[in-house]
Prior knowledge:
Strand content of chain A: 5-15%
Oligomer: homodimer
Largest interface: A-B, 48 and 48 residues
Structural class of chain A: mainly alpha
Number of helices of chain A: 7
Helix content of chain A: 55-70%
Radius of gyration of chain A: 21 Å
Number of strands of chain A: 3
Strand order of the largest sheet of chain A: 1-3-2
Amino acid sequence: MELEDAKRKFIESWGKLGSEWGINRTMAQVHALLLISPDPLTTEEIMETLSISRGNANMTLRDLIGWGLIEKQHKPGERKEYFFADKDVWNIAKQVAKERRKRELEPVIRVLDELSKVTGDANDPEFSTFNKSVTDINKLAKNVDRTLETMLGAEESWFWGGIFKLFK
Amino acid sequence: MELEDAKRKFIESWGKLGSEWGINRTMAQVHALLLISPDPLTTEEIMETLSISRGNANMTLRDLIGWGLIEKQHKPGERKEYFFADKDVWNIAKQVAKERRKRELEPVIRVLDELSKVTGDANDPEFSTFNKSVTDINKLAKNVDRTLETMLGAEESWFWGGIFKLFK
DNA sequence: TTAAACTTTCAAAAAGTTTTGAAAGTTTAA
DNA sequence: TTAAACTTTCAAAACTTTTTGAAAGTTTAA
Lengths: 168, 168
C-alpha cells in the first residue's frame, strides 16, 4: 500500500472507531491527521486535507484542545496558528480516560449516590431489586473511579512507572 | 425521593450514559428497566413503560439478547415471551467488554496490522511519523486486547476470582 | 385445517447530530 | 488609526440515526 493510501485509511479508521465510542467522527479524524503529521498544521491545511469547512475545523480544533489532545503553536513571524498533537499514545489514553471520568463518570456517580439514598420496604421486591441494582452499580462505578484516580493522578505512579511500562 | 421517581431517574441516567458511550439510548433504557424489575417483563409492558413502539421494542430486545445482556423466558401455559436481565454487574461489565472487543477492537487491530506493514524511507519524516504513530497504537491495542482476553476468557480466572473480588 | 395470539420486518417519518459558510469579531503590522 | 490576516460564531442545511406502525410472518390450541 502507498503511504498516501495508508494515511487516508488510518484517518478513516480512527474516525470510525471514534464514532463507535461516542466521539464525533470529524474530531477523531482531525486528531488522526495531526497524529501522523511530522509538523504542526494550520486550520487551512486541515480544512483542505479533510475537505471540511472553516467553521467545522475551528470548532473541532477547539474541542480537541479542550480534551487536551492537541495544542496551538505559534511560529515566530507568522500570524497563523499551527496545531500539533501529542504523539505519546500513553498520554493520549491517559488524557481521554481523565476527561471521560470527569465528564461522564462523575455525574453518573452523583445520580447513583442520590438514588442509593431512596428508602423503602425491604420486603417489597420492587424496592429491593431497585436498591440492589443501584447500590451494586454504584459500588462498581466508585471502584472504577478510584482506580482511575490512582492510575491517572500521580504523574509517575506505580502504575505508569511499573506494570504498564512492560507494555510499551 | 419516591421509588417511582427514582426508577424513572435511573432509566433516564442509564440511557444518557449509554448514548455518551455509543450505545443507543433506548437500548440502555430497556436494559435499565429490566435491571430494576424483580420479574421478567413482556414486550407489551416494556412498550408501555417507556412509551416506545412495538417495532422499536422488538429490535431493541433482540439487540440486547445479541449483547448477551438479557434473556427470553417462557412461562408455562403462556404464549407471551418474557424478558429478564442478568443482574450481576460484573457479568454485565464482562459481557459488554467482551462484545466491544469483538466488534470494535478486533477490526481496528486488523487495519493497524495492515498499516504497520507499509514500508518507506526511514529518513522521510512523513513516513517515519506515520509509522511510529501506527505501530505505537498497534502495540497499545494489542496489549489491551491481550489483557482483556486473559481477564474475560476463563470463567473463573485469577482476575475474577482474585483481585476484583475485593471490589464487590 | 383455522384463527387468534403473538413476533418480526422494513420503508417512511421523526429526531438528533454534524456541517456549512457567510458575517461578525479580533489581532497585528505598518 | 487602518486594513489585511486571521479566528470565531451560529442559524440553516445536510446528513445520520432512531423510531414508528402497519403489514407480513409464525406459532399454537382446538
